[in-house]
């Protein structure tokens, strides 16, 4: 066992009750194969532990809807993780969970299995917005779920919001932020709605708020979250100090992560691989597809710039043996002059305004 290397494990659970109108994640409606799937994930966990005998400090069940899998299935997978890997005592074990009734695994069952962090999909506290997205829960379902989580001993909770929803206004987005804050989670994520091909929205594009409104939503809500005690630590992520997602930080820091399940991606020791979006093929034992090498300076810089602390001189020295290249700082200068980036001699960062056009800026400076 190589305990000098750590690893985050992502387990994909590819089942959902029904498809939300915007969702491009790989998931299917029929969970009948869930136990067979769990058994194959457990076997894959054992295989990965032989290949990468590292210390696991984060486990993340995502999907899909992990609670569509019976408790026994999730338990089988976690048991395989604990048997085949060394797992740190304080490992962050997150499970995504949907509010509402009718899921085979309850929040109490998750607590029982040792899950110590929940990521709850609220998206919006405005009923009409939830309806447009194809979400079936109410804001009260989220409150009930978080109360039950606390009663079961899970205090580390993240609430997901969505910005740029059809018909959303600055006022309605703020209403959702206020509701999320009133639940007192440790972490809040807020992703911009993107219309993806192949989704229901992709086939019938809904009317979206105009660009100016979306920018105002982002800036106003970022500042409301900041004032409520949730500083932004990544473009779309906000947390009370010390409650940043350890698992997701691994992706932004180019650290080792293994993803298990159809459509799950991995990055270990500089190599990338992924499983195809095909549940049947996964259960039949298909090998992951080689996706080349990764983690070079450009990729690292792009990911670090997503973080509020930005691309830092000492981190570049430590990881690559050189400071931030002067050429990059020169290209960033006009962005700094326009208030889209800052550089204090140590860290190059996006401003809140800069985050809104970060993809365009990254294409120019990197
Ligand atoms: S958003 Fe979540 S619940 Fe909705 S279809 Fe996608 S994975 Fe399933």
For this entry, give a set of tags.
alpha/beta, Arc Repressor Mutant, subunit A, TIM Barrel, three-stranded antiparallel β-sheet, nine-stranded mixed β-sheet, single chain, 366 residues, globular, 15 helices, 2 domains, binds iron/sulfur cluster
Question: Could you characterize what this model shows?
Answer:
This protein is an alpha/beta fold. It folds into 2 domains: 2-252, Aldolase class I (TIM Barrel); 296-366, Arc Repressor Mutant, subunit A. It has 15 helices and 15 strands. The protein has helices at 34-51, 71-84, 107-113, 127-133, 139-151, 170-182, 200-203, 211-227, 246-252, 279-283, 297-304, 313-320, 326-337, 352-355, 358-365, and strands spanning 2-13, 54-63, 86-97, 117-123, 156-163, 187-192, 232-234, 237-239, 257-260, 265-268, 271-274, 289-293, 311-312, 341-343, 347-350. The protein has a 9-stranded mixed β-sheet, with helices on both faces. Strands 10-11-12 form a 3-stranded antiparallel β-sheet, with no helix packed on it. The structure holds iron/sulfur cluster. The site of iron/sulfur cluster (SF4) has 11 residues, from loops.
């Amino acid at each position: 066992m190589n305990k000098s290397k750590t690893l985050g494990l992502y387990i994909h659970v590819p089942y959902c009750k029904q498809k939300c109108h915007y969702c491009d994640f790989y998931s299917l409606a029929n969970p009948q194969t869930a136990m067979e799937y769990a058994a194959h994930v457990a076997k894959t966990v054992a295989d990965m532990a032989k290949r990468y005998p590292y210390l696991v400090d984060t486990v993340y069940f995502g999907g899909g809807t992990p609670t569509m899998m019976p408790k026994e299935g999730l338990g089988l997978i976690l048991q395989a993780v604990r048997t085949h890997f060394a797992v740190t005592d304080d490992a962050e074990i997150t499970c995504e969970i949907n509010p509402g009734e009718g899921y085979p695994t309850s929040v109490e069952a998750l607590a029982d299995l040792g899950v110590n962090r929940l990521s709850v999909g609220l998206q919006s506290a405005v009923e009409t917005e939830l309806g447009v997205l194809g979400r079936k829960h109410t804001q009260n379902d989220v409150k009930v779920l978080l109360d039950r989580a606390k009663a079961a001993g899970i205090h580390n909770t993240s609430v997901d919001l969505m910005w740029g929803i059809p018909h959303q206004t600055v006022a309605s987005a703020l209403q959702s932020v206020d509701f999320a804050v009133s639940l007192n989670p440790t972490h809040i994520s807020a992703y911009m709605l993107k219309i993806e091909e192949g989704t229901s929205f992709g086939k019938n594009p809904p009317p979206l708020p105009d660009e100016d409104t979306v920018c105002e939503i982002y800036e106003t809500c970022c500042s409301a979250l900041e004032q409520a005690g949730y500083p932004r630590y990544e473009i779309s992520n906000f947390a009370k100090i010390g409650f940043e997602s350890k698992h997701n930080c691994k992706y932004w820091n180019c650290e080792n992560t293994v993803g298990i399940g159809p459509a799950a991606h991995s990055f270990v020791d500089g190599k990338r691989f992924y499983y195809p979006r095909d549940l049947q093929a996964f259960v039949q034992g298909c090998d992951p597809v080689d996706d080349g090498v990764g983690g070079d300076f450009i990729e690292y810089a792009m990911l670090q710039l997503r973080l509020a602390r930005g691309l830092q001189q000492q981190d570049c020295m430590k990881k690559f043996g050189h400071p931030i290249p002067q050429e990059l700082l020169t290209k960033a200068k006009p962005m700094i002059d326009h208030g889209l980036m800052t550089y204090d001699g140590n860290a190059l960062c996006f401003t809140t305004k800069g985050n809104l056009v970060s993809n365009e800026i990254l294409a120019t400076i990197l």
